[in-house]
Amino acid sequence: MPALVLLGAQWGDEGKGKATDLLGGSVDYVVRYQGGNNAGHTVVVGDQKYALHLLPSGILSPGCTPVIGNGVVVDPSVLLSELSGLNERGVDTSKLLLSGNAHIITPYNVTVDKVTERFLGKRKIGTTGRGIGPTYADKINRVGIRVQDLYDESILTQKVEAALDIKNQILTKLYNRRAMAVDQAVEELLGYADKLAPYVADTVLVINQALEEDKVVLFEGGQGTLLDIDHGTYPFVTSSNPTAGGACTGAGVGPTKISRVIGILKAYTTRVGAGPFPTELFDEDGEALRRIGGERGVTTGRDRRCGWFDAVIARYATRVNGLTDFFLTKLDVLTGWEQIPVCVAYEIDGKRVEELPYSQTDFHHAKPVYEMLPGWSEDISKAKSFTDLPKNAQAYVKALEEMSGAPISAIGVGPGRDETIEINSFL
Ligand code: IMP
């Protein structure tokens, strides 16, 4: 029962799509377990580039069953348009399975997300504005709408009424907005029922049966470790658990079933939205990383904040996820620097700190302590094995591995499907 979890080890956008896709051919099921269409994977197949937001990247591998687990929040209009976009390009999406227990991002949740951010002003989180936070809030408040509710009009109406009861008070009295009509929301939601029906399944049962039959199941996290609601840089986080434990709750599998946890780690660091980021660069190096790395959000189109590699974060990701391996991505972006700074520790109030401080105040004050590693100028995009890399690139990878606490088992040297060096097989 090989069950692998693949997740972002930093603040998301580490290149998970490429890693998932690399494994796609040998994987039977790819399961998303949290997040929603706030995520964005770019997958390059041949000369075709696909930007996926909600669908698991396994949708592009013909033999693979893509699954949207119970822990995901689903905007039906986004899901349906993503599916039809792929169909138009000749991709067969009929194998998709959608958990009946997944929560639905309703139109009013999207409105609440945008209005709340506006209201927060300077204190805003910089959310993707897709209704993610309010939908998870409804789930926890027990006023959420689940996929299965679309198939019982009376229950759906009662639940929308319950959800809008308080929301309309807040919208009208606090935010000075118009109230939302229950029947309009119900009508819109019911309009999705038939179109989604072919995909709805008891995904917990399907996944566990697949594991019993020794199928290869890959659990794919959205966002990243530092955006985790419990283990990230709260409150500048998303509202779910991208960390490894989220795979168990968000897909309905026991921790004893997970055999491998792979952290995707960019060779430098990026972040979208607000919040602390110790190695962030505000100079021409940051600009160069953004330009060479194409660091612009797949979902929001926002420029990503860029900085040097942070080993403190990588060590933290190893710990909170129990990582067994790293997949190092975008090493090629660093080609051309004479020396590459790597953050090995922080200085906080004059003291050297080796591990991520649990105090938010301390983390906001953390200054990076850098070690300089020699760079390389050779094109590495054609490298097929570790020894094809220039000596300094090899040393950079080895240094990162030593600092981060888990073996680097694959290295991305370019955006294409085949531009990856495999060191240890994941299967
Ligand atoms: P939300 O997930 O839309 O609520 O946004 C919360 C925070 O997570 C914001 O800082 C977003 O920019 C960030 N975020 C959400 N999804 C992603 C992602 O896929 N990659 C990187 N950052 C993300």
Automatic annotation (TrEMBL):
What keywords would UniProt list here? Answer: Cytoplasm, GTP-binding, Ligase, Magnesium, Metal-binding, Nucleotide-binding, Purine biosynthesis
Q: How is the cofactor bound?
A: Binds 1 Mg(2+) ion per subunit.
Q: Pfam families attached here?
A: Adenylsucc_synt (PF00709)
Q: Which residues form the signal peptide?
A: none
Q: Where does Mg(2+) bind?
A: D13, G40
Query: Which pathway is recorded for this entry?
Result: Purine metabolism; AMP biosynthesis via de novo pathway; AMP from IMP: step 1/2
The chemistry this enzyme catalyses reads:
IMP + L-aspartate + GTP = N(6)-(1,2-dicarboxyethyl)-AMP + GDP + phosphate + 2 H(+)
Q: What class of enzyme is it?
A: ligase
Which residues are GTP-binding? 12-18, 40-42, 304, 330-332, 412-414
Q: Which cofactor does it need?
A: Mg(2+)
EC number(s) recorded for this UniProt protein: 6.3.4.4
This protein's assembly is summarised as: Homodimer.
Protein name (record): Adenylosuccinate synthetase
Q: Which organism is it from?
A: Streptomyces coeruleofuscus
Task: Please name the taxonomic classification of the source.
Answer: Bacteria, Bacillati, Actinomycetota, Actinomycetes, Kitasatosporales
